[in-house]
Amino acid sequence: MGPPDYATALDGLADAAPVLLETLLRQAAQPLGATELTVYLVDVQHMVLQPVLLSPELQDPILAEEGVATSMAGRVFLSGEPLVADRGSEKRVWVPLVERGERTGVVALTLGSIDGQALEHCVRLGLFAGLLVRGFTPVTDLFALRRRRRPMTLAAGMQWDLLPPLTARCDRASACGRLEPAYEIAGDAFDYAINDRHLDAGIFDGMGHDVGSALLTTLAVGAYRHARRSGDGPPLVAAAIDQAVDGQYGGEAFVTAVVVRLGLDTGMLEWSNAGHPPPLLMRGHKVVSQLARPAQLPLGLGGDRSQSGREQLERGDSVLLYTDGMVEGRSAEGEEFGLERLVDQWEREALSGQPPEQTLRRLVRAVSAFNAGKLRDDATILSVTWRG
Which pTM was predicted? Predict the structure, then answer.
């Protein structure tokens, strides 16, 4: 048993069709003596892990989807730790599939035997699989289709195509977002980028529903990216989005938004709020304040965009941005989820020590469960954390 042969897989990568993802991984894993290798990707709601390809060497029940909350593969996905189980005289191994720090699936393979070094090789194989998935994703529909469990509305499909990866991180900061209802969402979106000295992020909620709302939000996010890439801070970014929306809709439509810029070296957070719920600041697992000022008109309605708020973050602080769908949903008895319940849920989840992506996943699941799984409005959430 030797280390994986990444060179052979990389040599064939340039001309490989996306359908050959598992073939490339099997080539890399061949020195390990691996068999029955398959890749699972988590669905958009993080409920099940779907096998990407139906490899001819695999037999049921290995091909079945795996529940995130009920399976070995799900345990690995949630914990981020590899798992080994006996399978007759062999060993079945599950490792996280990690795309640039974001867990998006699981790689499973069978080995004749395993020791600590072989397990390390398997974990790195999961990282390599993540790089392959991330590289293939822009040029294929295969992975997007495997992440869907049922048909998606046109508006929802447009919004998912608009989103960045759900998690982005570097050694000094991270950003993570989630949104529901995954298959019907229309007007909500978020975006972020980690550049040389800043992490820039924004959350958006376009008025209305369906395709019209998706088109409005797409314009807002496009204007946001264009202004952000010019190096502008939150006030000028907000002004650019406002002008773009007003120019297209003439004051007849608007987008609420919060755009933030975090200094990676300094921890200084600057934000502009355009008619949106104020972000929450968590310090030491407790929400210590709302970033409530200054508030301005929604984007597309004009007004002064020159003001911004500033807050010096401490190491480990997190800021939570959310749309009104996170707090305005109601139970069957008519009770509103509310800000107090959101704060309490976030604090309790933060105490678990889970990474931000798992914390947000559980927050969104709590909101959906409170609404009996029938959200009346898009519910979107975005966290930004400064590690210092």
Answer: 0.90
Extract the residue ranges of the chain whose pLDDT is less than 50.
54, 56, 58-62
Per residue in 31-74, pLDDT (tens digit) is 999 999 989 999 998 999 999 864 545 444 445 789 999 999 99
The full 3-state SS of the chain, as one line of letters, equals CCCCCHHHHHHCCCCCCHHHHHHHHHHHHHHHCCEEEEEEEECCCCCEEEECCCCCCCCCCCCCCEECCCCHHHHHHHHCCCEEEEECCEEEEEEEEEECCEEEEEEEEEECCCCHHHHHHHHHHHHHHHHHHHHHHHHCCHHHHHCCCCCCCHHHHHHHHHCCCCEEECCCEEEEEEEECCCCCCCEEEEEEECCCEEEEEEEEECCCHHHHHHHHHHHHHHHHHHHCCCCCHHHHHHHHHHHHHHHHCCCCCEEEEEEEEECCCCEEEEEEECCCCCEEEECCEEEEECCCCEECCECCCCCCCCCEEEECCCCCEEEEECCHHHHCECCCCCECHHHHHHHHHHHHHHCCCCHHHHHHHHHHHHHHHCCCCCCCCEEEEEEEECC
Domains, the chain, in order of start with CATH, read: 6-146 (3.30.450.40), 155-386 (3.60.40.10)
